[in-house]
């Protein structure tokens, strides 16, 4: 199957390249594109024009293929703002929350969206449809090649940027590193990091009340936890003064730079990475008229160097017999050590390459740093705005601390009922990523749990999804679906987790965590969700016990790839979560 798919892809690329070449020749003959004159400035101008024509040709080929398929036309959906941009300006708007609620309320759980140049796309949060996409037919509904290409360029062949057999092999090798037993072993290390942050925030308060950017502290703390637990590496001493770390800074620039390249990512990137040699592609980036491409290249290069440095230091220490590192390796205290050990012991056919090993470093850091930090920021913001819930959880935490006589042990921490409810409710109502994109590799019928009324008046019980169609899977829509969660689905109510509605338990939503799609589902579900939960609960246990939080400024949560907070007034570029913080009373 994979060999056949690869052959089809090769033939497809060859046909596209031939089409592009024909377009270029025609353009040159007509004078639309200059003939190459082998002199410096003219040659660069030609190469830039060539780059633009290649990108435009790939986009037009893609759009033509979509435009000829009208199978989704009978599905109701909002009118396009324009033929060129469709509904995307509203759908992908950073302030798009109201628009998405309008879509759900007006069109329901299955919606046709007009994309760029009239392309038909499908939005779904119907439970049965999602079950087929992520579980039953997950071998057909694959991660969008545009997303996979972007991950691969930034992180290399790690878990996010891999597919097929390579992804399966990596995941099988990594699974033991994220076991409950290993989470239990990591807990003391995680508390050590959190207490450093706690001490620095206390020093910042100086026994008073102060406005503190808690997102900054959450990001620094989660980065250091990933460094220590993931790779046995320290990124940040968590002192009062933050020293900029190039690795984390570059990771933080991935989403902003990616937003500048939306057109390229959606319509050309996964084709461009197959054209020519790496050296040729670098030349094309160097002369392209898109500065953001060069920003992306520089970020990817820097991440690669940093990850390789961390990997080489650990490997050298292991083979040189460094006592502390060797002990850490044999005891399996960090994920990279466990992975290296398992890889050494694996049969030859199950081993992964060094490139795949150090590709996990940037992958795990990106996947776990901003996501967990922003989820923690949401939880603190919600508790600041719900003082009774904050008081209740503090009482539960303090009782557990008293019974433990110190830091709350792993099993006790994970079982605290109200802390668990707060985490689940925050991740339900405020998922950090609000959608996932899938594309079917063949024509397929997608069954629905409830019929949709077609534009022709017919009841649609299953949707014909053509091969290659873009399917937007609504995480937020599923998590806030009133038909499954009840009429109060749009409210933050931790208590709902003590008595879930039958409509939810019978819906068979395909999430790996609590009937939620927050951590995805199927073979591409978040492998580190247990570590994320441990981080979230341990950090909340420490900071809620020590500090009291109140609102400071109005916060606007931007609906970007990763949902981030900014003050509603002033600069809304850099993520920030200011809260009033003081020591909690005994």
From TrEMBL:
DNA-binding listed as a keyword: no
Keyword Repeat: no
Gene3D superfamilies documented for this protein: Cytochrome P450 (1.10.630.10)
Cellular component, GO annotation: membrane
Subcellular location per the Swiss-Prot or TrEMBL entry: Membrane
Listed InterPro entries: Cyt_P450 (IPR001128), Cyt_P450_CS (IPR017972), Cyt_P450_E_grp-I (IPR002401), Cyt_P450_sf (IPR036396), Cytochrome_P450_monoxygenase (IPR050121)
Main location: membrane
Name of one Pfam family that matches: p450
Transmembrane segments: 44-64
Keywords from the named record: Heme, Iron, Membrane, Metal-binding, Monooxygenase, Oxidoreductase, Transmembrane, Transmembrane helix
Top-rank lineage group of the source organism: Eukaryota
Ligand binding (heme): 526
Cofactor(s) the protein needs: heme
CDD domains reported for this sequence: CYP_FUM15-like
Similarity field: Belongs to the cytochrome P450 family.
Protein name: Cytochrome P450
Lineage of the organism: Eukaryota, Fungi, Dikarya, Basidiomycota, Agaricomycotina
């Amino acid at each position: 199957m994979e060999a056949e798919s690869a052959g089809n892809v090769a033939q497809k690329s060859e046909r596209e390249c031939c089409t592009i070449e024909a377009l270029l020749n025609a353009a040159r003959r007509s004078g639309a594109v200059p003939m190459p004159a082998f002199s410096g400035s003219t040659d660069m101008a030609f190469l830039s024009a060539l780059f633009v024509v290649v990108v435009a040709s790939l986009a037009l080929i893609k759009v033509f293929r979509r435009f000829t398929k009208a199978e989704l036309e009978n599905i109701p959906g909002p009118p396009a703002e324009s033929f060129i941009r469709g509904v995307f300006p509203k759908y992908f708007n950073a302030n798009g929350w109201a628009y998405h609620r309008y879509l759900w309320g007006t069109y329901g759980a299955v919606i046709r969206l007009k994309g760029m140049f009239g392309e038909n796309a499908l939005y779904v949060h119907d439970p049965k449809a999602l079950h087929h996409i992520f579980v039953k037919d997950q071998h057909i509904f694959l991660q969008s090649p545009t997303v996979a290409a972007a991950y691969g360029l930034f992180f290399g062949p790690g878990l996010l940027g891999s597919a097929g057999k390579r992804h399966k092999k990596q995941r099988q090798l990594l699974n033991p590193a994220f076991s409950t037993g290993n989470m239990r072993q990591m807990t003391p290390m995680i508390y050590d990091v959190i207490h450093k942050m706690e001490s620095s925030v206390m020093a910042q308060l100086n026994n008073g009340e102060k406005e503190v950017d808690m997102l900054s502290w959450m990001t620094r703390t989660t980065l250091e936890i990933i460094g220590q637990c993931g790779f046995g590496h320290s990124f940040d001493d968590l002192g009062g003064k933050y020293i900029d770390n190039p690795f984390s800074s570059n990771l933080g620039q991935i989403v902003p730079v990616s937003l500048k390249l939306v057109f390229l990512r959606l319509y050309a990137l996964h084709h461009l990475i197959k054209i020519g040699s790496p050296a040729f592609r670098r030349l094309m980036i160097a002369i392209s008229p898109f500065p953001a491409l060069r920003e992306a290249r520089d970020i990817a290069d820097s991440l690669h160097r940093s990850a390789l440095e961390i990997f080489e230091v650990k490997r050298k220490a292991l083979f040189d017999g460094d006592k502390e590192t060797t002990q850490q390796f044999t005891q399996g205290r960090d994920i990279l050590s466990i992975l290296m050990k398992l890889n050494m012991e694996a049969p030859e056919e199950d081993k992964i390459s060094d490139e795949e090993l150090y590709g996990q470093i940037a992958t795990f850091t990106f996947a776990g740093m901003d996501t967990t930090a922003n989820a923690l920021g949401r939880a603190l913001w919600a508790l600041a705005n719900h003082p009774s819930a904050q008081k209740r959880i503090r009482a539960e935490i303090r009782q557990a601390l008293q019974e433990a006589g110190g830091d709350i042990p792993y099993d006790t921490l994970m079982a605290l009922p109200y802390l668990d409810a707060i985490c689940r409710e925050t991740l339900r109502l405020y998922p950090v990523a609000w959608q996932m994109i899938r594309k079917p590799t063949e024509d397929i019928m997608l069954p629905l749990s409830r019929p949709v009324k077609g534009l022709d008046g017919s009841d649609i019980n299953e949707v014909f999804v053509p091969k290659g169609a873009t399917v937007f899977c609504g995480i937020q829509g599923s998590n806030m679906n009133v038909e499954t969660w009840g009429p109060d689905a749009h409210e933050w109510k931790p208590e709902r987790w003590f008595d879930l509605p039958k409509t939810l338990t019978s819906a068979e939503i395909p999430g790996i965590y609590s009937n939620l799609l927050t951590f995805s589902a199927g073979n591409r579900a978040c492998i580190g969700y247990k570590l994320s939960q441990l981080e979230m609960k341990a950090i909340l246990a420490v900071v809620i016990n020590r500090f009291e939080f109140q609102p400071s400024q109005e916060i606007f949560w931007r609906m970007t790839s990763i949902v981030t907070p900014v003050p509603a007034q002033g600069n809304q570029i850099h993520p920030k979560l200011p809260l009033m913080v003081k020591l909690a009373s005994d």
